[in-house]
Amino acid sequence: MSGGELIWVKLVMDDSRWKLSVLKIVGLMMIFSAQICFGDTDPRDILAINSLYAALGYPPLPGWLVSGGDPCAEGWQGVQCVNSNITGIILNGVNLGGELGENLGAFLSIIQIDLSNNHIGGHIPSSLPPTINSLYVY
Fold first, then answer.
1. Is the whole model's pTM more than 0.85, yes or no?
2. Quick count: other Cβ atoms within 10 Å of Cβ 46?
3. pLDDT tens digits, one per residue of 106-131
4. I need a labelling partner for 69 at 20 to 30 A (CA). Which of 3, 5, 20, 138 fits?
5. Strand, helix or coil for residue 114
6. Residue-level pLDDT at 102
7. Which residues contact 112 (CB under 8 A, 6 or more apart)?
8. Which residues are bridge partners to 112 per DSSP?
9. What count of Cα atoms within 13 Å lies in the side-chain half-sphere of residue 54?
C-alpha cells in the first residue's frame, strides 16, 4: 500500500468508529428515555396504594414505598396494571397484617384485590371503588 492508500484506510476506519460511537450513544439515549416515558401510574392510584401500604403497617414488600413511586413502571410486588392504571393487587399469603384503611375507594380502575391468607384485621371500608369485582381478605 502506498502512503495515500494508508491515509484513506485510516480515515475510513476512523469514520466507521465515529459512526459506531454515535450509534451507541443514540441507542443508549433511546433506552434511557424509554424507561423514563414508561409507566406514569395515575397519581390518584399512587396516593391510594401508599395509603393502603400505611394501613397494612408498611410490610416488607419489594418495590412498595411509603410515598410516591410508580407501581406500574417499577413492578411493585403483587401490583397489576393496564397502562397507567392499577387494576389489581394480589398479595395472597404473604404474611400481611394491619388493616385495609379507609381509602380503597380512591383507586380509579382496580378490579381485583386479593389479600387472602394473611392476618388483616379491622373492617371492610364503607367506600369501595365502583370498578371492584372481587375483594378477598380472609
1. no
2. 20
3. 999 999 999 999 999 999 999 999 99
4. 138
5. strand
6. 93
7. 80, 87, 88, 89, 90, 132, 133, 134, 135
8. 88, 134
9. 13
Secondary structure (3-state) at 135: strand
3-state secondary structure 40-99: CCCHHHHHHHHHHHHHCCCCCCCCCCCCCCCHHHHCCCCEEEECCEEEEEECCCCCCCCC
Strand 79-82 to 85-90 pairing: antiparallel
* Each residue's pLDDT tens digit, 21-69: 655 665 555 555 444 444 589 999 999 999 999 999 999 999 999 999 9
> Which residues, including other chains, have CB under 8 Å from residue 3's CB and lie 6 or more apart?
none
**Does residue 83 have a pLDDT over 70?**
yes
> Do residues 57 and 94 lie in contact, with contact meaning Cβ atoms separated by under 8 Å?
no
Residue listed under C-alpha cell 387494576: 87
How many angstroms separate the CA atoms of 66 and 58, rounded? Answer: 7
At which residue does the C-alpha cell 387472602 appear?
116
